[in-house]
Amino acid sequence: METTLSIKRSKRISKGASPKSASPQDRTNEARTILGENVDRMKPISLQTKEPSETSGHKEPRFKNPFEEFGTYALPQKDIPLDSIVRSTEVVMDQIRRGYEKLLEEEAKELVWMVQYNTIIKAYEVAERYVREIEYSAEDIEDFCFALENTRKIPYLIPGPAGLYISALCNYASEEEILLKLSELKTEINLLGFRLSKGKRLLIEGDTGDFTGIGVEGGELIVEGNAKNWTGAGMRSGKILVRKNIGLHTGEWMMGGEIFVGGRVRGLGNIVEGKVYEREKLIYPGKARSPNLNY
Question: Is 277 exposed, middle or buried, given 0-12, 13-18 or 19+ CB atoms closer than 10 A?
Fold first, then answer.
């Protein structure tokens, strides 16, 4: 501060003012003036924005929030993949259900139940006609089997037509191997595996009803439970495996192929050609057997 005062004084002396001629009051006023100028230079710059002056008529621009635009931005609505998958599955199930209902309308009267082979063939051809128009997967077949007893959308389960319709679905599916989980069904479905074609493998968890695997044409049918009467009737080629027991008339009029039974065979039918095994033992061709009524 002393250095600054000396400089100011030297400037004023050079202008013609004599320090000796100046009065004490003048020197005091001069010192105050110099100190005031230095204090003004030392004031900090205010960081606060000034309000626009109303008297001057000029309005300074206000500070703009850079995030205001984001407040009104809306993300475009997109379908979640799971939602579209669920909708697609529901559409397929509706198509499969309608085909089954049409089969019931056209053939249920004849199929409930005076069984004749020509009646079965006619009903199967009706099922084929509706199945060919549907794009479905093996999982859709399993869902349909579950829905037979667990939904109100399907009016009723009739073992014969239901089995023919499921057989048609299996035969026209793009997959070569199909799994049907039927162990929780209260009703045993008839005619499963009808005309199972070569290259197809049908695995059934649970028990099946009558006429399982009739007319098999080279496919492989595996039943993890029991099968009832007339299993393998009229089969031409292929393989049927029943893990547990099998009923009467097994292999009736079969023309070829093999039937393997892990449990007991209650009775054989009139077999033309083919082989039947009971617990890995060949029982046809072999000695004639009487029906086993002990199980």
Answer: middle
Question: What are the structural domain ranges in the chain?
Answer: 82-176, 192-295
Measure the CA–CA gap between 80 and 86, rounded to whole angstroms: 10
Token digits for 36?
């005031």
Stretches where the chain sits below pLDDT 70 are: 1-87, 108-115, 151-156, 287-295
Six token digits for residue 13? 């002396």
**Token digits for 233?**
């009737």
* Partners of 265 in the β-ladder: 246
pLDDT digits (tens, 9 = 90+) for 104-122: 888 766 655 456 778 888 8
The reply to whether omega before 44 is within 30° of 0 (cis) is no
Give the whole-angstrom CA distance, residue 103 versus residue 164: 10
The DSSP line for 118-136 is HHHHHHHHHHHHHHTT---
Strand order in the sheet with 217-223: 177-181, 201-205, 217-223, 237-242, 258-261, 275-278, 281-284
Look up residue 115 and give its two tokens.
């069984």
Return the ∠ at Cα 291 (arms to 263 and 111), rounded to 5°: 85
